[in-house]
Amino acid sequence: MKVIVTANPVELGKNAGLEAAKRIREAIAANGYANIILATGTSQFETLKTLTAQEIDWSRVVMFHLDEYIGLPETAPASFRKYLKERFLANLPPLKAVYLVNGEADPAAECERLGEMIRRQPIDVALVGIGENGHLGFNDPPADFETNQPFIVVRLDEDCRRQQLAEGWFDTLEAVPGRAITMSIRQILASRQIICSVPDSRKAAAVRDTLQRSISNLNPASILQSHPACTCYLDKASAELLDQNALL
After folding, report:
1. Which of 59, 84, 120, 159, by CA, is between 20 and 30 Å from 28?
2. Spatial CA neighbour of 21 closest among 127, 128, 123
3. Tens-digit pLDDT profile for residues 230-245
4. Cβ proximity of 126 and 194 under 8 Å
């Protein structure tokens, strides 16, 4: 895993977004199209802002969505479909195809629908983040490292739900849904390139455990250590607990 520490979240997002654009253009040049995964949340604000400003033939890009709450209307402020439509899709010309996770559909049927789509279209570039509890997607600890299903239904642990509350997406903890549809760990790892954006000191412990502790499903994002082409972008705050000598 390659680790790049930047001065602040804006620089982090700029660097991550520029790399994502480069990898997308490379995939288009090689294959005629690019299949990408997008995450949401505060960690992706600057990355997506930079990415949408780049010169890319978006008509050749297929976008998959990482995760979504079950039962949350798209009109809700915390809806990840709403997030991607407003922060990504609204700023671009039409893509070749867009596969958003519909959290209001029957969960099992939605997992099957998305699974069928992504099995046909191997992912070139995945943009992800890391949760305060080490989750990758909504794969909270202990995460399922074994399932081959591309999308799965999961229960969100209290740490995950408290993070969503603290970030301002919900007014009360009770309002945070308890279940979600998420892309599975193995499906994320099947991506040819992974770009992981992790700003902020509240993620520092998770970053340390992800990068410098043994791989464990109790810290799901640690599995990124096993990926042959993963770049993790940090800022000074999120990198503050790292053993800097181990990064050299």
Report:
1. 84
2. 127
3. 999 999 999 999 987 6
4. yes
